[in-house]
Design a protein that fits this description.
299 residues, alpha/beta, four-stranded parallel beta sheet, three-stranded mixed beta sheet, 11 helices, 11 strands, 45% helix, globular
C-alpha cells in the first residue's frame, strides 16, 4: 500500500527513473538476492516501505514471524544500500515504536522512554532496530539516512483480510459483508474506547517525497493528522460510509490495544508539511478501492 502510493506521488511530481520490484520479483528477506539487486542497480535514493504488517490478531499469533521477517528485510536493504553507495535512504516505521503509555501527543523524543504495547511488541522492536541502524550508519559512516514514523494508515492497496488486517480496513470489510448479507448487527472487538489517529496513504506519500528532498537528521519524523477518534466513533463512521444500517455490538473480552496513540506532528509542520485528506473523505475513497479490488477484498 505505502510503496505504491510513493510511486504514484513520485510519478505525479515528474520522477520517471524509478527502479521497482514486486515481492514476487525480489524477496527482501533473502540477503544474497538483495545484495545482487543493489550491486546491479546501484539506486541513488531508496524508500524502504516494505514490511510484514497486520492487526492485533496477526501480531499476537505470530510475534516471532513479525520480528524475524521485518528485522531481516530492513537490515538486508539498509546494509546493501550502504555497501553500494546509496546517496539517501528513507526508512518507514510505525507509531507503535513509541511506549504504550507515552505522553500524548507522542513526540519523536519519547522513543525508548518506557515499555512498549505488548500486543505488537515484536513488530515495534524490529522497527526500532531499523531506525536505529540508520542512525548508527549516519554516526559511524556519515550517511544521510532518515526515518519517518506514520500513524495508522489506510487507502488504496490496503489489506482487507478478515483476520490479518488493521482496524479500519477490517471494519470496511466487516460492515460491507454485513450489509450484503442483510445482517442485523456487527460485533467489534474491545469496548470501543481506545483512541486512534488515521492518515490517508497518499498524504503520507507526499510527506515521504518531501522529506527525501528537504530533511536530514538522525531523529525520526512523525507523520499524522494530529486528530484522533475513538474506535467506537470510527466504527459508526465506517458503517455510515458503507451504508450498514444495523446495530454495532462490542465484545469487551477481546483486546483493544494501546489506550491512546496520537502523534505530535509539529516537527513535520515546522518543515512545511500538513495532511490534506479528512477521515470521512478518505474512508469513502478506501471503500471504493475495496469495491473495485476483488482480489484484495477476498484474500
Amino acid at each position: 500500500m505505502v510503496g505504491s502510493a510513493i510511486v504514484r506521488e513520485l510519478r505525479r511530481q515528474g520522477y520517471d527513473n524509478l527502479v521497482l520490484r514486486t515481492h514476487a520479483e525480489l524477496d527482501l528477506t533473502r540477503q544474497a538476492d538483495v545484495e545482487a539487486f543493489f550491486a546491479a542497480e546501484k539506486p541513488e535514493y531508496v524508500f524502504l516501505a516494505a514490511a510484514k504488517v497486520g492487526g492485533i490478531v496477526a501480531n499476537q499469533s505470530a510475534p516471532a514471524d513479525f520480528m524475524y521477517d521485518n528485522m531481516v528485510l530492513e537490515m538486508n536493504v539498509i546494509h546493501a544500500a550502504w555497501q553500494n553507495g546509496c546517496r539517501k535512504l528513507e526508512f518507514l516505521g510505525s507509531s507503535c515504536i513509541y511506549p504504550r503509555l507515552a505522553p500524548q501527543p507522542m513526540r519523536e523524543d519519547c522513543l525508548l522512554t518506557s515499555a512498549l504495547e505488548k500486543t505488537n511488541e515484536a513488530y515495534a522492536l524490529a522497527k526500532i532496530s531499523g531506525l536505529k541502524y540508520c542512525e548508527y550508519l549516519n554516526r559511524q559512516y556519515g550517511t544521510d539516512y532518515i526515518s519517518v514514523m506514520p500513524t495508522n494508515l489506510y487507502g488504496p492497496g490496503d489489506n482487507y483480510h478478515p483476520e490479518h488486517s488493521h482496524v479500519l480496513p477490517a471494519l470496511i470489510r466487516r460492515f460491507h459483508e454485513a450489509k450484503v448479507a442483510g445482517a442485523s448487527s456487527v460485533t467489534c472487538w474491545g469496548d470501543g474506547s481506545p483512541l486512534r489517529e488515521f492518515l490517508y496513504v497518499d498524504d503520507l506519500a507526499e510527506l515521504c517525497v518531501f522529506l527525501m528532498n528537504n530533511y536530514s537528521g538522525d531523529e525520526t519524523v512523525n507523520a499524522g493528522t494530529g486528530k484522533e477518534i475513538s474506535i467506537k466513533a470510527l466504527a459508526e463512521l465506517v458503517a455510515k460510509v458503507v451504508g450498514f444500517k444495523g446495530s454495532i455490538l462490542w465484545d469487551a473480552s477481546r483486546p483493544g490495544g494501546t489506550p491512546r496513540k496520537l502523534l505530535d506532528t509539529s516537527k513535520a509542520a515546522a518543515l512545511g508539511w500538513t495532511y490534506r485528506t479528512e477521515l470521512e473523505d478518505g474512508i469513502r475513497l478506501a471503500y471504493q478501492d475495496f469495491l473495485t479490488s476483488p482480489i484484495r477484498a477476498e484474500r
